[in-house]
Amino acid sequence: MIEIPLSTDARQSFTTDLGSRRMAMEVAYNERSGLWIASIADEVSGEVLAGSIALVTGVDLLAPYNLDLGHLYMVDQGAGAPRDASLETLGSEVVMVWLDAAEHAELAA
């Protein structure tokens, strides 16, 4: 399991490894919806593989795309019921984690 480093900057661009692939990610806060949104592109080709992903807790963010990139989740590390990241909690209380297939299967068991 790898934690993808995020901050509370309202617009962020960075590269990260998802498994064996180097990806370019853009993360931005959408004030209208009150949610953080991400786009993931192949760093080499620049092709956007998944865009406008709402960064919500409790779901595999990559599952709808069938990209064979592993599993990406937002995890609320605070006490109480899980909540989505706010402008103040992204990267500190609510973090993004990536799991490979074996880690994901182990957690699901």
Please describe what this structure looks like.
With 109 residues, the protein is mainly beta. The protein has one domain (2-108). The chain has 1 helix and 7 strands. The protein has one helix at 101-108; strands spanning 2-4, 11-18, 21-30, 35-42, 48-54, 71-76, 94-99. The strands form 2 sheets. Strands 2-3-4-5 form a 4-stranded antiparallel β-sheet, with no helix packed on it. A 3-stranded antiparallel β-sheet has the order 1-7-6. The longest helix is centred in the last third of the chain and has 8 residues, at 101-108. It starts with a strand and ends with a helix. 20% of the residues are buried.
Give the SSE map.
Blueprint: E1 2-4, E2 11-18, E3 21-30, E4 35-42, E5 48-54, E6 71-76, E7 94-99, H1 101-108
Antiparallel strand pairs: 1-7, 2-3, 3-4, 4-5, 6-7
Question: Which structural class fits the helix and strand makeup?
Answer: mainly beta
Residue-averaged pLDDT: 94
- The end-to-end distance, rounded to whole angstroms, is 16 Å
Q: What fraction of the residues are assigned to beta strands by DSSP?
A: 35-45%
How many domains in all? 1
Spatial strand sequence of the major β-sheet = 2-3-4-5
Order of helices and strands: EEEEEEEH
**How is the biggest beta sheet arranged?**
4 strands, antiparallel
Low-confidence stretches are none
The helical percent reads under 10%
Identify the overall geometry: globular
User: How many β-strand runs?
Assistant: 7
> Which radius of gyration do the C-alpha atoms yield?
13 Å
The number of helical elements comes to: 1
Oligomer: single chain
